[in-house]
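Quick question, first post here. What does this chain look like in 3D?
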Amino acid sequence: MIGDIDDSKAPLLDHLIELRSRLLKCVYALVITGAICFYFSEQLFAILVHPLKEAFGDGGGRLVYTKLYEAFFVQVKIAVFGAFCLSFPIIANQLWAFVAPGLYAKEKKALLPFILATPFLFAMGASLAYFVVMPTAFHFFLEFQGNSSGLSVEALPSADSYLGLVMQFILAFGISFLMPVLLMLLNRAGFVTRAQLIGMRRYMVVGAFILAAVLTPPDVVSQLMLAIPLLLLYEITIIAIWFTDRKVAKEEAAEEAAA
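> Answer (accepted):
Ran it through. Tokens below.
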């Protein structure tokens, strides 16, 4: 078992130097990707604003900014947001490279699939938000345009508030879709069992709607479109744990038979 761990037993100072080196690489990745995203911020904003453009329809709608510096800081926010998204694989790789030497081979084998699944699940959640949830929600919001007591009611969102709403949607759905990874890790660590997760179904239903109410705008459409996928992911996680439990049981039986 000892041979499964890397033989290097570096002193604390060497570990700190390595940690500093890997943190610097993460910072460099953020700075470089941030500069690239700032350079292409107009093109990136055009992509982010596309769902709203589709909701307004041809020739309709516009974005405004109410402060002179607002347009500049919108570009800065896009650069920061894009930098975190683009550099996340590099940051995750540096974190894994720092932690992996202290793990047993069996632990590495168990953790690696979860690390690989994290960006995939986040991308799934972000894609659902961008391609399905935001167009549906924006259509719903814009239906309140019209006339009220003889006055014209028109939606004039500011660029900053719109960007904040888009980031809220993408982050809320992307992070929420990481729930299976969290539950699977808790199961592998022995904190929760499949039977406990099955018994917590009723609480999960309430928790999913509370989480959706906190993370999404205060409209029923957005909340349902987050809560329902969360409940489906919860059920999928329970099924996945059943398969992993069977696999672990078979491996343990094989080891006992070999011994």
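The CA atoms of residues 70 and 83 lie 20 Å apart.
The chain has two domains: 9-140, 178-247.
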